[in-house]
Amino acid sequence: MAIDIGAAEVSYLEHRGVHRGIASWVLSTDHKRIGILYLTSLLSFFAVGVLIGILMRLELIAPGETLVSARVYNSMFTLHGMIMIFLFIIPGIPAAFGNFFLPILIGAKDVAFPRLNLLSWWVYVAGATLAVLSLFSGGGAPDTGWTFYAPYSLRTGTNVTLAVFAAFVLGFSSILTGINFVTTIHRLRAPGMSWFRLPLFVWSLYATAWVQVLATPILALTLMLVMLERIVGLGLFDAARGGDPLLYQHLFWIYSHPAVYIMILPAMGVVSEIIPTFSRQKIFGYKAIAFSSLAIAFVGYLVWGHHMYTSGMSDTARWVFSLLTFLVAVPSGIKVFNWVATLYKGAIDLAPPLLYTLSFIFLFMIGGFTGLISGALATNLHIHDTAFVVGHFHYVMFGGTGFMLFAALLYWFPKMFGRMVPARPMWLAWLLMFIGFNALYFPMLILGWMGMPRRYYDYLPRFQPLNVVSTAGSWVLALGLAVFFVTLWRARRHGEIAPANPWGGSTLEWQIASPPPVENFERIPVIERGPYEYGEIPPVE
Amino acid sequence: MTALGTYVKVWLALIALTGLTVTAAGLHLGSLSVLAAILIASVKSSLVLSFFMNLRSEERVFKVMLGVAMATMAVIMLLTFVDVWYR
Amino acid sequence: MSDAALGAVAREHEHHDATGAKIGMWLFLFTEFLLFGGLFLLYAVYRTKFPADFHFAATTLDVRLGTVNTAILLTSSLTMVLSVAAHERDNRKLSTAFLALTMLLGLAFLVNKYFEWSTKIDHGLFPGAAELATHAPGEKLFYGLYYAMTGLHGLHVLIGIAVMAFVLPVAARRPRRRVRLGTQSASRLALTAEAGGELWAETPEDAVDEIEVSFLYEHNEELAKRDRIVVENTGLYWHLVDIVWIFLFPLFYLIT
Which domain, by its residues, includes C15? Predict the structure, then answer.
């Protein structure tokens, strides 16, 4: 099977455009270069977030003040949350891999609005700069937690105003990406690339982009009101002036719960790409997976109240939200079953990308099941605001999205940089990360169940043994991350030269050269088959 | 192309509806007055949407997208009020 | 026109898909809709909680001023749509005139708003004022929402006017980008813009002598289309600002 895409041009990495040096990157409107820009910036912030996380775990190695004061600890978990959420995981897979691969996967030469795309990166950088500034200006680093709950966020002397403004600006970047992706998928699909011939990663990006467009404005508004409250004392969330702080929580989670799906949906999309490639089977239940992405995006809007069970919300709202929360399990379950069914009787090649993907399924399932415990009203009251919740969302966000981001890196690295990643160090990195991860977060589930609250620098002495395990886990995990990224860094220059299709993949990105030519396709391809037709694909080179 | 006269007619209708909503507010209709105000405002905005923003002759995808956005807002309102009404 | 030249047209314009640009604009409008939607949600909740306070507080707003401003904004929507329609009919002068008129009406709206706000502020009715602190909680919320919502709306009017200032020359211009088609070497055919820069070059196999006129026409037509979508999208934004006001007006001024 061959798709006519014309002769190869010079690769996007070697292309000499109008600008030279660093300007050829930061002023480029090439979706591939913007994807790399995002990838480097968000991985840098990830490193900072990890560092703060390790320091927090170090503080928690023993009860009492070990390393930092209560106040510094408060700023640390705020910062860790802000960086990991707004600067790493929300842009995460869509901004890095979505930008790089979406146009290629649908047979286009770029996104619909290339200049807007570049702007979104610059806005992201501006937001990140403001976030960093907020640490060193005004009353110092914010100490509210990344959720900026009123009324404390309205009263604290720390520099919440600037931090909130930073998140506001970052929201714009996210919206721009969303608008760009929806338009791109509607308008720039190659001839013959019908909706049901789209790779499933594209479907997940489509659902994500809609959530970015329709949820982020609510966050923008909420944060704007917090700024106004602090500057002019509007009173809308201030009980002293008749306002209702609970409405802050409503508005915040109206965005932030769907935002959870901005984080996880693209990761699920990557799973749906990797599993068919490495089991050499057509994906099982294509339409079910595609529609479950839309269903998750939709149901994401119905369940925000499950973050507020103990806030004093009405009882009716509590059971309604609890009931609706269980709906999320349906599309998530559909996905997991279809992935497993795809693997069944496949010619499985346990290369690193698949290995990381399988551990995603395992870790995400623990995250999902603990999610049921957190989402059910009665059990939630027991574990609310405890380490259990921290364990739960790290299983989903890090074990889920984080591991899939690594899998995506391993899967697409040869295409992006034209070099292979050696498999052996990546197996070692996986072993370290997998053990470290579970040692770090599983004790949190138990500790939370035992009653250890979250967001304190201190705890009762009887919680110490498991906290030591958890802290030790953070070191193993960090070591694994170090092996992973050092290997990638070295592979970028010294890896074997990658062929066009090292994994025998069947989607469009594998039909073009590695690294891709500037214009992706010399001629726009005409699509005549679905994305996962393995029967017609030549064997691995 | 829409005839220019159509736009002027729509504008006249919008001004008339503004007059109507001011008059209706003066009638002290009780709780109905809010309903009337919202209803008239909805009619006015659908006129703007379909004529001035030309939605009526756009492709279907625009209408579906608008529907999605409006449904989202409706869901958000409704679920928030599940709390507010019963608190 | 030969295949080669058709290909050049396609390449020059493949990133300028009018429907795509319009979809992008509508998606942006949805974000605006939800931004204001959040405020309307707050309004609805507080109104439900404090109906009497809201009604009382609303009596201090000047219905006449509000009605005049509504009429101004509705009229500006009309002039905006007429500007778009004039551009569609290739009447650039009329289009520009209507656009300028829209800007003036927007400014008039803001001037009214300024007087309205300053009267309120003079009476001590603003967040944080000692006078307002003595009022009932529902009234404080009413004014909080009043300033937040009309303020955010006013900001959008201001942005709209600024955008129109940039669009004015776009609406006025008649794109005449001259391109020249010629051979550079024995067999290489290149298309260059008069301002400089090569748009396209190829080594065609078939003869291309009759291209020039039709190509120029297509090209300029395409550029005009690009300008049109800019004017149209400005219009879409302006109408959304109008729609927001259509709801703000009764909810703040007419609930006495």
Answer: 3-253
